[in-house]
UniProtKB/TrEMBL annotation:
Similarity remark: Belongs to the MoeA family.
An example molecular function term from Gene Ontology annotations: metal ion binding
E.C. number: 2.10.1.1
Annotated protein name in UniProt: Molybdopterin molybdenumtransferase
Length: 403
């Protein structure tokens, strides 16, 4: 069979990123925004705190009323009111104190809070044994966030702290690029979901693995197994999911040279192209569109499938919803042992990174069937296409899969 030149990894990365593109911004409830990226800045609709309040459990007073207080000569003030957190506050008359709890509104007329430790804790009359300056233990309205200021810029990743801030400000909806919806479909007539496979069958691992990877990339996964060769029924599944709204159809299996390949048979005649990329593992790849959805067809070997996902799909998914860091963090580390790599192919080899030592240990053989080794790895060692061997101690690029 004639062979055509292999496509570079960078070219195929660009193609997949272009196919997925950028999703249109849409409002989503705050409770569904974790990990997404703001498409518009958020302006504070009000100040934080929204009212002057106490930073301590103690007594609200006028600082001048307790200016002469000392342990030997405490100042005694009548306790005119009790202000638990959540109560509306009130007015403090000169020469009196209000017992106040942390977070409760400062009464008008008070300008300091004395912590309870500096008093006898009295409930009718309180003896205060030290002076406090005006402003002591008061959290003034707007000291944290002033109404009208930009609290989060467009492009900010929404994490727990951002969600906390938005909730405090009463913002219940944010405008983001939505999570891409991904149909993850394992194909292969040898595959089963039955925990007890028949002779010659194996359990499908890729749909579970890729669905997890999709979710981990911040997208939504719809997981399917298609174990038959029947093209019309396979297309029927895709059509139904397209109707339900899918941004990416992600298949695994059936992209190489086999005789019965439902993916190729169904999608090849419909414009999806099947190419070879200069990469190991993950050489055979498919890509294109079907209906309104992007299509990425990954090889079936589990290691090839997940490594291909890391290289092509994960960055494109993250870029599609505007993530500022679509790619994994890359660090430099020294190989603990010598490696070899096929000429003309970029090799992404599983490894174990020791950040403290600045070393990386190749983890398992380079072949694409070693799922056991894959599960023990925490990084990918990125060997350029022109490298065929490296000695122990050589420094390499390493993709940190934990970040
Ligand atoms: N004559 C050629 N044969 C192969 C070539 C080639 O260029 N010429 N490429 C090899 C490479 S490289 C790869 S990678 C694989 C890719 O094959 P397919 O994408 O067609 O995958 P399958 O044949 O369907 O499966 C390969 C292997 O992986 C197992 N598998 C598949 N799906 C799953 C799943 N969901 N869960 C668990 N395991 C799965 C399958 O049983 C096979 O063992 O092709 C080479 N061959
Ligand atoms: O390219 Mo295949 O993914 O090496 O086994």
């Amino acid at each position: 069979m004639p062979t055509s030149p292999l496509r570079s990894v960078a070219d195929h990365q660009r193609r997949i990123a272009d196919l997925l593109g950028s999703l249109a911004p849409t409002p989503v409830p705050l409770t569904e925004a974790r990990g997404l990226v703001l498409a518009e800045p958020v302006t504070a609709p009000e100040s934080l705190p929204s009212f002057d309040n106490s930073a301590m459990d103690g007594y609200a007073v006028r600082a001048e009323d307790i200016a002469d207080a000392s342990p030997d000569s405490p100042v005694r003030l009548p306790v005119a009111a009790d202000i638990p957190a959540g109560s509306p506050g009130g007015d403090l008359a000169p020469g009196t104190a209000h017992r106040i709890m942390t977070g409760a509104p400062l009464p008008r007329g008070a300008d300091a809070v004395v912590e309870v430790e500096l008093t006898d804790g009295g409930t009718d009359v309180v003896a205060i044994t030290g002076a406090r300056e005006a402003g002591s233990f008061i959290r003034s309205a707007g000291v944290d966030v002033a109404a009208g200021t930009t609290v989060l810029d467009a492009g900010a990743v929404i994490g727990p702290a951002q969600i906390g801030l938005l909730a405090a400000l009463g913002v219940r909806e944010v405008v983001v690029r939505p999570r891409p919806r991904v149909l993850v479909c394992s194909t292969g007539s040898e595959l089963t979901e039955d925990p007890e496979p028949d002779a010659g069958q194996i359990r499908d691992s890729n749909s579970f693995m890729l669905a997890a990877a999709v979710e981990d990339a911040g997208a939504v996964a719809i997981r399917r197994l298609w174990a038959a060769d029947d093209v019309p029924t396979f297309l029927g599944i895709l059509d139904a999911e397209l109707d339900a709204g899918v941004d990416l159809i992600l298949t695994s299996g059936g992209v190489s040279a086999g005789a019965y390949e439902v993916v190729k048979d169904a999608l090849g005649p419909r414009g999806v192209e099947f190419t070879k990329v200069a990469m190991q593992p993950g050489m055979p790849q498919g890509s294109g569109t079907y209906g309104d959805a992007a299509v990425v067809c990954l090889p079936g070997n589990p290691v090839s499938s997940l490594v291909s996902f890391e290289v092509f799909v994960r960055p494109a998914l993250r870029a599609s919803y505007g993530h500022p860091r679509p790619h994994r963090r890359v660090v430099r580390a020294a190989l603990t042992e010598a490696v070899t790599s096929p000429a003309g192919k970029r090799q992404l080899r599983r490894g174990r990174l020791d950040p403290a030592a600045g070393t990386v240990e190749p983890w398992g053989p380079p072949g694409s069937g070693f799922l056991g080794w894959l599960a023990g790895a925490d990084c990918l060692i990125d060997l350029p296409a022109d490298v065929t061997s490296l000695d122990a101690g050589a420094t390499v690029d390493v993709w940190d899969l934990t970040d």
